[in-house]
Amino acid sequence: MGSRALPQSAIANVRMDATVEGVVKPTALPNRINNMIDLESPKVATMAKISEVEGEKGVFCRCWKSGTFPLCDAAHVEHNKLTGDNVGPLIVSKK
Question: What is the pLDDT of residue 28?
Fold first, then answer.
C-alpha cells in the first residue's frame, strides 16, 4: 500500500514542531479530532478492564475534549454547541 499525500491546502496549515524518534510529526492538522491527548504518540489506544469501572457503568470520552480522558467529563456538550457536532460518550454497562 502506498502512502497518500496531503492536499497542498492542508500542508500549508501544518505546524511541524514536534519530533518523535527523528521523524517530524504534525501537531495541528486541519480537521484533526484529537488536539490534546498524547499528541507525541503515533496512535492513542486505551484499554480498561470492566472490573476497573466504578459503579454500574463506565462512561468513556469519544470527543477527545475530556479533561479526564479516557473518561467522559461532558466536554462534548460544549463542543457540540460550538461546532454543531453530535458526539457523545461510549457507555459500557456492567449489566
Answer: 56
